[in-house]
Design a protein that fits this description.
two-stranded antiparallel ribbon
Length: 273
């Protein structure tokens, strides 16, 4: 570092050095004040190039996992809608089984059996209505054609296909709604239908459990990644305040020294008196 004896006044080296130091201090003070204002240690790539790149990569992971978490929630909703409908169908099939057993009573006359058949046909019509009305975002779930892929993880390969078997009277009971008569009521395949519906309900339950596990894992991963990103990006406010206070003092002393360096050549004016 160059020093001046003070006798050469054409170039005030002391003032230049004080000015340079003041600029450096002010620049550094601005960095710490910005960190205090934003709460971030890294406000631009120049603050920490590698840290900036790593944190942006982590931010991408967090946003992808957050979107996957939303997908998991939507898939759970789809399963919830379908499960409610399937449970209702199971209850209806149980009632039909009861009516079918009741009809197998030799003490009943033709009118009584016809009344039972009318009830069963009405219940079968309700199953058809449930199948038509069970929808998610306007798409029928129980028609047998519903099959949607949900990305339930950060990776594009982490997917879950949501689909349901067809729920219709013909496949469950062997008859279409309204086609049942007292002569063929014994041919209703209620047990087969109940087994199929209960199997679907069990499958829904298993997938919902799987989705709940994924939801927990993704939530934990998001929290951990946020913590890692925070360690890189976020400012330690206490430490930044300490640095800021120190630099404010240095800024004042540098300003005073600059003023003193600017006035020191005036002392040589006495030589001309």
């Amino acid at each position: 570092m160059a020093f001046s004896t003070g006798g050469r006044i054409n170039t005030n080296i002391g003032a230049d050095q004080a000015y340079s130091a003041l600029n450096d201090i002010t620049r550094e003070l601005g960095v710490h004040q910005l960190r205090l204002a934003t709460g971030k240690r890294i406000n631009s790539a120049s603050d920490d190039a590698s840290g900036y790149v790593i944190s942006k990569k982590m931010e991408g992971r967090i946003r992808a996992m957050t979107a996957a978490l939303d997908n998991v929630g939507d898939a759970q909703s789809v399963y919830g809608v379908a499960e409610g409908a399937l449970q209702t169908v199971a209850d209806i099939l149980t009632t039909i089984k009861e009516k079918q057993t009741r009809a197998a009573n030799g003490a009943l006359g033709g009118e009584e059996k016809d009344a039972i058949v009318s009830e069963i046909n009405s219940l079968m019509g309700e199953i058809a209505d449930i199948t038509n009305q069970t929808k998610f975002n306007g798409t029928a779930l129980l028609s047998g054609s519903f099959s949607k892929v949900f990305q339930v993880g950060e990776s594009a390969s982490s997917v879950l296909t949501v689909s349901f078997a067809s729920v219709d009277n013909l496949s469950l009971l062997g008859f279409a709604a309204g086609s049942l008569t007292s002569a063929n009521i014994a041919n209703l395949t209620v047990d087969t239908g109940l087994a199929a519906i209960n199997g679907e309900i069990g499958k829904v339950g298993a997938y919902v459990n799987r989705l709940q596990t994924k939801e927990s894992n993704i939530t934990s991963a998001i929290t951990n990644t946020e913590a890692a990103k925070s360690r890189i990006m976020d400012a330690d406010v206490a430490k930044e305040q300490i640095h800021s206070s120190k630099l404010q003092i240095l800024q004042q002393t540098a300003t005073a020294q600059l003023a003193q360096a600017n006035s020191s050549p005036q002392s040589f004016l006495s030589l001309f008196k």
